[in-house]
């Protein structure tokens, strides 16, 4: 549905976006993650045709944005970070106006307005002036606008910024429901947002794409190895020998010994099934296995590790 190939945006002698490439399939919700100034919004604007890239190509549903910007834009519903609304119009009036700009007419436009009011849960404020609505309602009005022409692609730039916790949860629920009929790219610097909504993450840092993969893969750490906490009923030395004898168990670290249980942390390469072998080894050694728990790396830890590693590589001689 979305193909980004070798995208570059240069301001003077600085690359705000540097040779970024990725694809997004139909029906995916992809989180575009990075700190402020990483180049997320610049990339979003190039995808939507609002900004011309220095080089590279963006294709939406087979349409090259640079060659036929109007046709490509018709495929997109865009909610920018600073959601521009006419605050002196009532919500329904605003959607009537926006629908007319998007080519919707008569009964089709009226029916579609009622649909998006319902989907975005703003029917109750349809007759109110936008300027009197809360921040949460205004964000959802902007989302309703993005959905008016029923585009196959939604680009949402920081959709929950400035919302209170209840509004954040409500907006996330709406976005998750949209994946049934739309491909969604969600740009954010809020890590829990990606975990709550997205199945896949793209991490951008200083204009470079550093990670592209399932959100769950981030929890496994940068090496891709699974980290496991293990408790063995027995002394440290005997338990350590037992763990070392199991193929696939790597980087064993002793943590503590309490009430006769020695606890360790170890890693195992991706795709390695060590549980059964470890159980058998402990049973054969007469050392009951009392704990075996996968340890997840938090998104914050994974993000900081990725960006810190990149920065260290840049400054190293």
3D structure, described in words:
By secondary structure, the chain is of the alpha/beta class. The protein has eleven helices and 14 strands. It has a six-stranded mixed β-sheet, sandwiched between helices. It has a four-stranded antiparallel β-sheet with strand order 2-1-4-5. β12 and β13 (261-268) form a beta hairpin. α4 packs across α5. It is elongated.
In brief:
This protein has 11 helices and 14 strands. It has 317 residues and is an alpha/beta fold.
Query: What is the 3D form?
Result: elongated
Largest sheet strand order: 6-7-8-3-9-10
Helix content: 25-40%
How much beta, percentage-wise?
25-35%
> For the CA atoms, what is the radius of gyration?
25 Å
Mean pLDDT: 87
Unreliable stretches (pLDDT < 50, length at least 5) are: 311-317
Task: Name the descriptors.
single chain; 317 residues; alpha/beta; six-stranded mixed β-sheet; four-stranded antiparallel β-sheet; disordered C terminus
Write the SSE topology:
Elements: E1 2-11, E2 14-24, E3 29-33, H1 40-47, E4 55-60, E5 63-64, H2 69-73, E6 76-79, H3 91-101, H4 106-119, H5 135-147, E7 153-157, H6 165-178, E8 183-188, H7 191-197, E9 200-205, E10 208-214, H8 215-219, E11 226-233, H9 236-244, E12 250-258, E13 261-268, H10 275-284, E14 289-295, H11 299-315
Parallel strand pairs: 3-8, 3-9, 6-7, 7-8
Antiparallel strand pairs: 1-2, 1-4, 4-5, 9-10, 11-13, 11-14, 12-13
Helix pairs in contact: 4-5
């Amino acid at each position: 549905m979305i193909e980004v190939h070798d995208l570059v945006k240069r301001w003077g002698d600085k690359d705000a976006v540097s040779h970024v490439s990725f694809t997004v399939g139909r029906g995916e919700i992809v989180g575009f993650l990075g700190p402020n100034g990483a180049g997320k919004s610049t990339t979003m604007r190039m995808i939507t045709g609002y900004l011309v890239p220095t080089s590279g190509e963006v294709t939406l549903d087979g349409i090259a944005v640079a060659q036929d910007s109007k046709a490509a834009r018709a495929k997109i519903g865009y909610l920018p970070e600073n959601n521009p609304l006419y605050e002196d119009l009532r919500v329904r009036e605003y959607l009537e106006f926006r629908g007319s700009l998007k080519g919707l007419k008569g009964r089709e436009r009226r029916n579609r307005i009622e649909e998006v009011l319902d989907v975005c849960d703003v029917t109750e404020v349809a007759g109110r002036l936008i300027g009197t609505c809360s921040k949460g309602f205004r964000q959802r009005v902007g989302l309703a606008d993005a959905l008016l022409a029923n585009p196959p692609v939604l680009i949402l730039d920081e959709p929950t910024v400035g919302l209170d916790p209840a509004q954040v949860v409500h907006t996330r629920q709406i976005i998750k429901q949209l994946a049934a009929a739309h491909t969604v790219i969600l740009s954010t610097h809020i890590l829990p947002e990606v975990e709550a909504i997205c199945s896949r993450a793209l991490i951008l840092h200083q204009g470079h794409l550093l990670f592209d993969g399932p959100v769950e893969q981030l929890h496994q750490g940068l090496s891709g190895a699974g980290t496991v906490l293990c408790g063995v009923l027995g002394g440290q030395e005997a338990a350590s020998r037992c763990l070392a004898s199991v193929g696939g168990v790597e980087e064993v670290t002793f943590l503590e010994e309490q009430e006769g249980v020695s606890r360790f942390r170890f890693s195992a390469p991706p795709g390695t099934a060590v549980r059964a072998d470890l159980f058998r080894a402990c049973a054969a050694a007469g050392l009951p296995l009392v704990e075996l728990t996968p340890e997840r790396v938090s998104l914050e830890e994974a993000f900081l590790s990725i960006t810190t590693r990149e920065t260290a590589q840049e400054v190293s001689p």
